[in-house]
Amino acid sequence: MAMPMHTPAKINYADKEKFYKELKSEAEGILEKEWFVNLANLSALLNQHLPQINWVGFYLNHKEELLLSSFQGLPACTRIKMGKGVCGTSAQQKKSLLVPNVDEFPGHIVCDSNSKSELVIPIIMNDKVLGVLDIDAPVLNRFDEVDQKHLEEIVKTLIQKTEWPDSFT
Hints:
With 169 residues, the chain is of the alpha+beta class. It is built from four helices and six strands. It is globular, with a radius of gyration of 15 Å.
């Protein structure tokens, strides 16, 4: 039987190091072994605490195409080809992409015209791209290297605590 979840108070973003320490602690506390549960809860947790964002969620690698998975925000693009847009490029290059202005990213895919900046972090296990964490913001220059570093650490924790399937079907 699942334990009821409490609603944690909003974490203060003014001190980013303290903010991310608390956010990582909360993330570790909600992560279980089931991948679909973890993606749903982590997208909700990030949406609850990250200020100035308008979309956060996951795209999963299915037959070399990224398919929309758990997310918080407006309806989104359902399929992204590897190498296309910020998400597909991040997955193909196997590296995080911090985009201060999406209008300046060649081939940016517009899912929500309100999105102005973006951070995408690939989910990689045993050199295989499982998917990406995608976070959009309605302001330019929303994300910096501090956000990227700590969100990459949260993704590493997600990878470690999760039992992943051989493929997403």
